[in-house]
UniProtKB/TrEMBL annotation, chain A:
This is Amino acid/amide ABC transporter membrane protein 1 (HAAT family). The keyword NAD does not apply. One of its GO terms (molecular function) is transmembrane transporter activity. Its main location: membrane. Signal peptide: none annotated. InterPro entries: ABC_transp_permease, BCAA_transport_permease. It holds the Pfam family BPD_transp_2. Belongs to the binding-protein-dependent transport system permease family. LivHM subfamily. It is a multi-pass membrane protein. The lineage of its organism: Bacteria, Pseudomonadati, Pseudomonadota, Alphaproteobacteria, Rhodobacterales. The chain crosses the membrane at residues 12-34, 46-66, 86-109, 118-141, 180-200, 221-245, 265-286, 298-318. The keyword Transport applies. One of its GO terms (cellular component) is plasma membrane. GO terms for biological process: amino acid transport.
UniProtKB/TrEMBL annotation, chain B:
InterPro entries: Leu-bd, Peripla_BP_I. It comes from Rhodovulum euryhalinum. The keyword Signal applies. Residues 28-351 form the Leucine-binding protein domain. Pfam families: Peripla_BP_6. PANTHER family: BLR6548 PROTEIN. Keywords: Signal. This is Amino acid/amide ABC transporter substrate-binding protein (HAAT family).
Length: 332, 426
């Protein structure tokens, strides 16, 4: 029989890995856009919020802009009266995210071709504020319950099987079923994205644009199409992240703040690597949870937010480009 | 031409004249941002009640109430901007619904001589009217809430908490830390052990804290949360199968939207409340005189909810204080200083609440020059997930003044020393 304290540490580590997967899901969206266009997309967290709001709105049959319509026309309409199956609502939300990507390209990015990265970054800050307000007007600011049939709560199977490892004070490992689903979804997502970028024509075009915009343009790759494509994929990844986080807390405006959790992951994993986002997420997840478990009680707890950044900074000292980032060598 | 312009300007001034006589109640609301879900129903209730006064009663003492809404997004800087932007309009009272904004406004309202009402939040020791002339926190404050929770637990456990383990899960901010001194003092008195579990804002990720709760198995978890922290905590409690009846939130962690995302799993969760939930007759008046005329502050869907009721109750207390001020000074056109006098003479009785169409909406209390904190009483309510409503489990429970009064005295006297103030009401 193993000592309980050791088993608790293992449990914290397992849960850290699971939390890391959720951080990685958010970080993935940043990486995709940064890789293809060199833009640090400040609006990625808001994209997750907007996607989740749209999903719940469609599923519940909520009339978009109902408050505005009622205030202007003096009507009293709120719902279409349908309850849409989750899968259909997800597909329609993907459609909305593609439309959003087209709109972002048409109204923002198109006008900023060849601008400095900082200009594009500033544009995404504007986009974040706009989308947050737009989502508010479109779907309302109340907390919405997200139910797409995902399991939640402790996995009793894991709990029962592992309970024998420890003594009286050990109740088996706690693993949230939602976290297991999130890990599986993240794995499928990463494999699909890797296959897509390695073996499909569009994927290769995407990598070409990432390597060199002008060279890609010269061989006939449409930069505008690639941008729409990559923002659509980032929108899809945002939807997945929005579903996983929204299932825990309900869909509400603080969902956009999950982006804060992705920043240390990006610093650690590198802004240009999909595996980097995953590995970075896992390291941050495990690191912050273990630190909170071991050191937290001695210094008053609530260490996770800052420790994630400290961990990322420690890695940066040794690898400034991040674990998997590209080393930029500029010759003079 | 100059003469023409001058007469137009004079005409405009004269036309604007009556508007200056309105009773101005700024509403520092937050309908956007991460805390909007709590800000919207409160603001709807606050504004709807003033509209009701205008539409049903022709104003307060015959003078129309004018609400100026200013969006703070629960951001302290924006809250201060809102204060600065609205105070010149003849503001009678501020209700910022944020402890952070409250701390910034305390010195400002004291200098500008405008009352600040922080109902169940803000600086707890502001209950001492001898020190805080312009700040009121009736009917109850955070320390009262902590004590009410412990008194409820004492009652549930045959009068003893000896050897019990109580954990406080709190928002790692000035707000969340407020009950700690009280809970520590009460732990020394009643013999329970207190574990502190801070959650960093906004509280979307709480796995570490709930794993610790699962390991240490406290008998009771108390929660001082706000915003997304509440929903996540309720879900995580359900995930680890923590007995919901032993999980008690304070009155900022006990609204419908705090429990609804967890669905049936939230059943049995308890919270404190300073305003009992019921289908009050005043709601019918609001529907008839405000909503039916298209004058609702929001979409009308929040009537009767916990935070709507609290917002309406806050407005009700402001209106009653304004009436009192009109009575004391013999004029319907009151100033902020007169409003303060009205607040210091406010008395809420069972009969007065019934007359207002809201019997038992709050505890009975009276305010005096020295005592700005009210009775400090609160109820415990429990969530019934099947019916989707809060059910009151208790009547109003009194806090332990023996413990709280010295803490209020100590903290407010420290403020006196820091700011070199002299005491009033003596």
């Amino acid at each position: 029989m193993m000592p309980d304290q050791f088993l608790f540490a293992v449990e914290v580590m397992i849960n850290g890995l699971m939390a890391g997967v959720l951080y990685a899901l958010v970080a993935l969206g940043f990486v995709l856009i940064f890789k293809a266009s060199g833009i640090f997309n400040y609006a990625q967290g808001v994209l997750a919020l907007f996607a989740a709001l749209t999903l719940v709105g469609l599923q519940e049959g909520q009339i978009p802009f109902a408050h505005l319509i009622n205030a202007t026309l003096g009507t009293d309409v709120h719902h279409f009266g349908w309850q849409m199956p989750a899968i259909l609502a997800i597909l329609l939300t993907v459609g909305v995210m593609i439309l959003l990507a087209i709109a972002i390209e048409r109204f923002i990015l198109k006008h900023l071709v060849n601008q400095e990265p900082i200009i594009l970054f500033m544009a995404t800050i504007g986009l974040a504020y706009f989308l947050e307000g737009f989502g508010d007007v479109m779907w309302g600011a109340d907390v919405k319950t997200l139910d797409v049939g995902l399991p939640q709560g402790a996995s009793l199977w894991v709990e029962e099987k592992s309970a024998v490892l420890g003594g009286e004070g050990f109740y088996g490992f706690f693993v949230d079923k939602l976290d297991i689903v999130a890990a599986l979804v993240a794995a499928v997502l990463v494999i699909s994205l890797t296959l897509f970028s390695q073996y499909s024509k569009q994927g290769r075009a995407l990598r070409a644009v990432a390597d060199d915009h002008q060279a890609a343009l010269s061989v006939g790759i449409s930069l505008r199409f690639i941008w729409v494509l990559v923002w659509s994929i980032a929108g899809f990844v945002a939807l997945v992240a929005g579903i996983m986080w929204g299932a825990k807390s309900g869909v509400q405006f603080s969902l956009s703040l999950i982006a804060l959790k992705a920043l240390p992951v990006l610093m650690l994993g590198g802004f240009t690597s999909i595996p980097g986002a995953i590995v970075g997420g896992l390291i941050i997840g495990v690191g912050e949870k273990l630190f909170e478990f071991t050191i937290g009680p001695m210094i008053g707890g609530a260490t996770e937010n800052w420790f994630a950044y400290v961990l990322a900074l420690i890695f940066l000292v040794f690898r400034p480009q991040g674990l998997f980032g590209e080393k930029i060598i500029e010759r003079v | 031409m100059k003469l023409k312009l001058a007469s137009v300007a004079l005409g405009a001034l004269m036309a604007a004249g009556p508007a200056l006589a309105d009773l101005v109640f700024p509403d520092l609301s937050y309908r956007t941002g991460p805390f909007a879900a709590g800000g919207i129903p409160f603001s709807d209730g606050y504004q709807d009640y003033f509209t009701l006064m205008n539409e049903r009663d022709g104003g307060i003492g015959g003078v129309k109430a004018r609400v100026i809404e200013c969006e703070t997004a629960y951001n302290t800087e924006k809250g201060v901007e809102c204060y600065e932007a609205t105070k010149g309009e003849g503001a009678l009272i501020y209700q910022p619904l944020s402890t952070g904004i409250t701390y910034q406004l305390i010195p400002k309202v004291s200098a500008d001589k405008i009352p600040l009402h922080t109902m169940g939040y803000g600086r707890t020791s502001a209950a001492n009217g001898k020190v805080f002339e312009w700040v009121f926190n009736y009917p109850a404050n955070y320390w009262d809430a902590a004590s009410v929770a412990i008194n409820y637990l004492l009652d549930e456990n045959g009068g003893s908490l000896e050897g019990k383990k109580i954990a406080l899960l709190y928002h790692n901010s000035a707000y969340g830390k407020e009950p700690i001194p009280t809970l520590e003092a009460l732990a020394a008195k009643h013999g329970y052990t207190l574990t502190l579990l801070p959650v960093d804002s906004p509280g979307q990720e709480q796995k570490s804290q709930w794993l610790q709760i699962r390991r240490e198995r406290p008998d009771v978890v108390l929660m001082w949360g706000w915003g997304v922290m509440n929903q996540v905590a309720v879900q995580e409690a359900a995930n680890i199968r923590f007995p919901m009846e032993n999980f008690i939130g304070n009155w900022w962690a006990g609204a419908e939207h705090d429990v609804s995302p967890a669905g049936a799993a939230a059943n049995g969760y308890k919270s404190l409340n300073m305003n009992r939930i019921a289908d009050y007759p005043v709601f019918e008046d609001i529907r008839t005189h405000v909503h039916a005329k298209g004058l609702a502050a929001g979409d009308g869907s929040n009537v009767g909810k916990v935070l709507y009721t609290r917002g309406m109750y806050a407005a009700m207390l402001a209106v009653e204080a304004a009436k009192k001020a009109q009575e004391i000074h013999g004029t319907p056109d009151i100033t902020a200083e007169m409003m303060r006098d009205g607040m210091e003479a406010l008395e809420m009785t069972a009969a007065s609440m019934e007359a207002l169409g809201a019997p038992g909406i709050g505890p009975e209390f009276g305010v005096t020059c020295a005592e700005h904190g009210g009775s400090g009483m609160g109820i415990v309510q429990q969530w019934n997930a099947a019916e989707g409503k809060w059910v009151a489990l208790t009547d109003y429970i009194a806090p332990d003044d023996e413990v709280i009064a010295p803490l209020v005295e100590q903290d407010s006297m420290a403020y006196v020393a820091e700011n070199n103030l002299s005491l009033r009401c003596e």
